Amino acid sequence: MKILIGQPYFRVLDKKELIRQMPYPPLGTLYAATILKNSGHEIIFYDGMLSSGPRDFINMIKTTKADLLIIYDDEFNYLTKMCLSNMREAALCSIRAAKSLSIPVIVYSSDATDYYSFYTAAGCDAIIYGEGEMTVREVAESFEEKNFIKKRREIDGLKFLEDGQLIITPQRKMIADLDEIPEPDYSFIDIEMYRNIWLKNHGYFSLNISTTRGCPYKCNWCAKPIYGKTYHSRSPQKIAQQILSLQRNYSVDHIWITDDIFGLKPNWIKDFASECKKLNLNTSYKCLSRPDLLLKDKTLSYLKDSGCSTIWIGAESGSQKILDAMEKGTTVEQIYEAAEEAHRLGIEIAFFIQFGYTGEGWNDIRMTRKMIKDCMPDDIGISVSYPLPGTKFYETVKGQMKNKTNWKDSDDLDMLFSGNFERSFYKILHRFVHAEYRINKILTEKNWKKAPRLLFYLLKFLRLRFVISGYIREENFKHAVTSE
Q1: What number of CA atoms fall less than 13 Å from residue 439's CA on the CB side?
Q2: Which CATH number fits the domain 2-168, given the four candidates 3.40.50.2000, 3.40.50.280, 3.40.50.300, 3.40.50.460?
Q3: pLDDT tens per residue, range 350-402
Q4: Other C-beta atoms lying within 10 Å of the C-beta of residue 19
Q5: What is the distance between the alpha carbons of residues 18 and 13, in angstroms, rounded to a whole number?
Q6: CA–CA separation, 282 vs 244, rounded Å?
Q7: Whole-angstrom Cα distance, residue 217 to residue 226?
Q8: Gap between the Cα atoms of 104 and 126, Å rounded
Q9: Cα distances (Å, whole numbers) of residue 189 to 127, 184, 272
């Protein structure tokens, strides 16, 4: 059977990501395409990351005249969890185009899982929820045998309409041994185009891999529409071999490990470091972790031995009150200790920061700014609290949400609920804290060659501080705060 498969995230529709010029192949979509190819299907792959826009996808739908269209999201790309409205509309247009040609459509994405009605209204035949690879294979088989309607109730992990009623089949059991999944087939994508973009803009080539699926932690704002709270891991041996293969076949200089939490299983990172040494790997990588995990045993030392160059942690806030409200299970003290130890070992550490969580006042924001200044991370990523369906946080604030429930793109940064401050305040705060961070970083490094940049950020900081002071003095804030 001829299957057209593509992801609904179009980088060209996300201005911030387009400016960054750090594209990664749609890993989850590649896994699904590889499994379908191994099942004997003819696969036509559409890579939205490098496309010029959704119109290209629609043209491909019209010209290929596939037997089945599968819109399959890359669940390893954190941006897809935000369910950006630009990407949703592009996906819906693709569904309508296919259905106008009587091509059946299957959709797999966090957005379709959470907001199925948009997709069923557009005409999609079914939505895959949970882990997707085995479900998509069974769905393809049923279409090939021309009995999908008859068999769909027997396929686990599906949502579809039947006589106007939503039918949800039982959730599919997760794949326990991830080593059984075949490696993604990179022949589906233009790997040289990815390499050229990276080399031109950054001087090195980076690819993405996944070593685990799921996260057992209970941060109450974090949605887990695909894997829930399960946690399954590939073996250290398999990962080391995969990196070696990418290094030999594609001259990869750097790896982004996409896991929500890297190396959580006891001794996994230690064993991985040992495997890397055996294979004489020299590819650096970045990963995500938690400050409490980094402080256990010799985790940071093993990370360094295995080639880790950068660790991103969900620091979120410098206020323990806010961390506790989020149910993070970490402390501000652990963040400080992890940053200090990482820097001592020569590993970069970067902070994800989140503003606007329920109950956060100006003093909490000041503590977060102080934490950034004291720890001086090597990079920061700032966002505002984002209510995702299925989370405790969403249930808390959904009554405050009105017409807008999704960001348009990843640079939207709009507060979707009523925080302590006006919505416009948080966009200014984002730029203010970034400017403050850049000033302190240049001063800490004592790199006087960056004096012009220092002056630029200083002027920006002073202007934004004046604007923020105006917000703080406003009398219509829900909670009184004091100016610095």
Answers
A1: 15
A2: 3.40.50.280
A3: 999 999 999 999 999 999 999 999 999 999 999 999 888 888 998 999 888 87
A4: 9
A5: 8
A6: 9
A7: 15
A8: 9
A9: 25, 11, 28
